[in-house]
Design a protein that fits this description.
Layout lengths: L8 E5 L2 E5 L3 E5 L4 E8 L3 E2 L2 E2 L2 E11 L2 E4 L10 E6 L2 E6 L8 E9 L5 E3 L4 E6 L4 E8 L4 E8 L10 E5 L2 E4 L3 E4 L8 E5 L12 H10 L4 E6 L4 E2 L4 E7 L6 E6 L2 E4 L3 E4 L8 E9 L2 E9 L1 E2 L4 E7 L13 E7 L6
Parallel strand pairs: 3-13, 21-28
Antiparallel strand pairs: 1-2, 2-4, 4-10, 5-6, 7-8, 7-11, 9-10, 11-12, 11-13, 14-15, 15-18, 16-17, 16-19, 20-22, 22-25, 23-24, 23-26, 26-27, 29-30
InterPro entries: Ig-like_dom, Ig-like_dom_sf, Ig-like_fold, Ig_sub, Ig_sub2
Protein name: Ig-like domain-containing protein
Pfam families: Ig_2
C-alpha cells in the first residue's frame, strides 16, 4: 500500500527499457510498501532469441558491482520480489526511516550488451505521519457548519484509515468530521489506524475562540461621513472585525467583488452608487459577512430665470426692476 505522487516514467536505450509506476513514494514507518516496474527488451538480436538471465533491485553499486537487496543484510527477512512476465514488484516490510533511498531495477539478458538499469529510479521516503488538523468554518444567515480534516505529511492511499477522537473518545473513521453545531468545550485529535501511538496536536483553542466570537456579531460596517450621502460628495465604508486570528476583508456589490481592502472609498458619488454593500471577513477558522445599504440623495435643484423691468423714458433716475423666478427640478431623491 504505497502512495504514488508522480506519474509513470520510462527509461530506455537501444530497445531496452524500464518503466516505474511512480518515481516518488511516501510511506509510514512500520508499514509495507510495493514498488513496481515493468521492463522490455528486443525479442531477438541477430536471430538470437532474447532471454532474461537475471533481474533484481538495488540501492548500492560500486565500480559496476550491484548489491541485490535480497542479499543486503540491512534488508534481511524484509524484502520480497513479486515477478511476473516483464514485470517486477519490490515489497519491503516493516519499513524504517533508514530505508529512505533511491531504488533501481536492473535486468541482464543473454545478448551482448543486453544489460539495463532503470536510472534514475524510485525515491522512497519513510517517515512518521506528522498529522495536522485543518479547520474550516462557515457562518451564514441560515446555516453554520464546521469541518475538521486530518492531513498527513504523506499523501496516504485508501488502504489507510483515519481515526478521530473527540474528548478522548473514538468519534469516526473518515479523514474528516463535519458538524452543524460544535461545543466550545470539545477537543479533537486524529491518528491513523495501526499507528495510534502517533496523534495529531489537539484542536480546541482555535475552535473555541472563534465559537465565542460568533456568539456576537463580529463584523460591522460604518459609513463616513455619517448621515445623508449627497450626490457629488465622497464616502468611505469601513469594515471592522474582532476575529482572531486576524482576518482578510472582501467587499461585494451585487455579488461582484469590488475591493479586498478594509476600507472602501467612493469619490464623486452618483445615484448609481446606491445599493447594498456586503463585507465578508475570513480567516483560517471561518468567515462571516454583513450588509449595509447605501442611499444617495440628489441635491435639490432649481431652474431660475431673470426678468428685467422697463425703465421710465421720462425719468432717467427711475430704477430698473429685476425679478428672479425659480422652480424646483422634478427629481429630488434617489
Amino acid at each position: 500500500p504505497s502512495v504514488s505522487v508522480s506519474p509513470p516514467v520510462t527509461q530506455s536505450q537501444r530497445g531496452y527499457s524500464v518503466t516505474y509506476t511512480s518515481t516518488e513514494v511516501c510511506v509510514l514507518r512500520g508499514s509495507t510498501v510495493d514498488i513496481t516496474s515493468s521492463y522490455s527488451y528486443p525479442g531477438s538480436v541477430n536471430r538470437r532469441v532474447t532471454t532474461v538471465q537475471e533481474s533484481f533491485w538495488f540501492i548500492k553499486e560500486s565500480n559496476g558491482v550491484y548489491v541485490d537487496l535480497r542479499s543486503d543484510p540491512d534488508y534481511s527477512g524484509r524484502v520480497e520480489y513479486l515477478n511476473e512476465d516483464r514485470k517486477s514488484t519490490l515489497r519491503i516490510r516493516d519499513l524504517r526511516e533508514s530505508d529512505s533511498a533511491e531504488y533501481k531495477f536492473r535486468f541482464v539478458t543473454n545478448q551482448d550488451g543486453g544489460k539495463f538499469t532503470g536510472d534514475p529510479g524510485v525515491t522512497l521516503s519513510v517517515r512518521d505521519p506528522q498529522l495536522q488538523i485543518d479547520v474550516r468554518r462557515s457562518v451564514g444567515q441560515f446555516s453554520t457548519w464546521t469541518q475538521l480534516t486530518c492531513h498527513s505529511s504523506c499523501q496516504l492511499s485508501d488502504h489507510f484509515s483515519y481515526v478521530w477522537y473527540k474528548n478522548g473518545q473514538r468519534a469516526g473513521g473518515k479523514n474528516y468530521l463535519h458538524f452543524d453545531n460544535i461545543s466550545p468545550t470539545d477537543s479533537f485529535d486524529c491518528t491513523i489506524e495501526g499507528h495510534e501511538q502517533i496523534r495529531s496536536p489537539p484542536v480546541c483553542e482555535s475552535i473555541n475562540l472563534f465559537y465565542f466570537n460568533l456568539k456576537r456579531k463580529i463584523v460591522s460596517v460604518k459609513i463616513h461621513p455619517p448621515g445623508q450621502i449627497m450626490e457629488g460628495s465622497s464616502v468611505t465604508l469601513t469594515c471592522s472585525s474582532d476575529a482572531n486570528p486576524a482576518a482578510n476583508y472582501t467587499w461585494y456589490k451585487e455579488n461582484t467583488v469590488i475591493s479586498t481592502e478594509q476600507n472602501f472609498t467612493i469619490t464623486n458619488v452618483t445615484t448609481e452608487h446606491g445599493g447594498n454593500y456586503q463585507c465578508e471577513v475570513q480567516n483560517r477558522v471561518g468567515r462571516q459577512n454583513t450588509t449595509k445599504h447605501l442611499v444617495v440623495r440628489l441635491l435639490k435643484r432649481f431652474l431660475c430665470s431673470v426678468v428685467l423691468g422697463v425703465a421710465d423714458d421720462k425719468d432717467p433716475n427711475f430704477p430698473v426692476s429685476v425679478y428672479l423666478c425659480c422652480r424646483k427640478a422634478q427629481r429630488e431623491v434617489s
